[in-house]
């Protein structure tokens, strides 16, 4: 069963409060959101991993992130993830 998914990009400003608000609004309609990390945001694996950790920390314990290349796939769960 496919869930509808949203898409958003991280640019040179990185993860700001506005980015988190936009991400939360995407989760109102989508179960999965793909976040593309653009080149000007820092194309290094360590930076992508830190972005993923920061996004999950900001969203809360009902979310998990998976990194595929320079894309972060964030999924919302009904129950809290440990």
Please characterize this protein's 3D structure:
30% of the residues lie in helices and 29% in strands. It has a single domain, classed as YhbY-like (Translation Initiation Factor IF3), CATH 3.30.110. 12% of the residues are buried. It is α+β, with helices and mostly antiparallel strands. The protein has a four-stranded mixed β-sheet with strand order 1-2-4-3, with helices on one face. It has helices spanning 17-26, 45-59, and strands at residues 5-10, 32-37, 63-68, 71-76. The chain has two helices and four strands. The protein starts with a strand and ends in a 6-residue tail after the last strand. Strand 1 (5-10), helix 1 (17-26) and strand 2 (32-37) form a beta-alpha-beta unit.
Key traits:
30% helix; alpha+beta; globular; 82 residues; four-stranded mixed sheet; Translation Initiation Factor IF3
How do you describe this structure in short?
By secondary structure, the chain is an alpha+beta fold. It has helices at 17-26, 45-59, and strands at residues 5-10, 32-37, 63-68, 71-76.
């Amino acid at each position: 069963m496919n869930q509808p998914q949203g898409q958003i990009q991280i640019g040179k400003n990185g993860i700001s409060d506005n980015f988190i608000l936009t991400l939360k609004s995407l989760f109102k309609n989508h179960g999965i959101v793909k976040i593309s990390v653009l080149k000007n945001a820092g194309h290094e694996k360590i930076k992508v991993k830190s972005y993923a950790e920061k996004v999950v920390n900001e969203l809360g314990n009902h979310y998990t992130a998976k990194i595929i290349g320079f894309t972060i796939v964030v999924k919302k769960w009904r129950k809290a993830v440990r």
